[in-house]
User: Fold this.
Amino acid sequence: MAWRHLRSAAPVAPPSAATLIDDARPLPPFTLRRVGGTLGNADLAGHWTLLDFGYTFCPDICPTTLAALKDVKARLVATGIAPPRVIFVSVDPARDTPERLNDYVRFFDPDFLGATGDDAALAPLAQNLGVHYQRLDERDKQHYTVDHSAAVYLIDPRGRLRATFSWPHDPAAIAADYRRLTGG
Assistant:
């Protein structure tokens, strides 16, 4: 009897990965550099967007997160849902030129975008979203690491923060939450 009951049990949904945020205010005005020009608030309009902050020399968190976001996109596309735009924002503008960023993100997915800016350009987004970063470059200006937040931020088509996804990133849970949050 127990075997029959367990065999017919409904599949378990993945746990929620999202911390929901109902921010009525759009993100503050910002302008970052990217290949081919700039990236700002107008570029977020009309699209669901996943923002990820990091740097291309990151040894672990950043490549793992971008690989997870590639998996999220594949899961959504496989179920017929339009995936969000993915934007990787570098907090290391001294080494991460727009060209380097473009090559880096395209390694993971040709549709991913990369953008950066100096601290003044990064400040509106970083402060509004609670992104922390600190370059550890006091001794060596070429070979250093950057401590940074590992969350991914879901921005709605009106430019408002809707959810955050904390580390570690579970692609199945993020895809399920994305479908639920976007009505997809």
The beta strands are 18-20, 31-34, 37-40, 49-54, 85-90, 113-116, 133-135, 146-148, 152-155, 161-165.
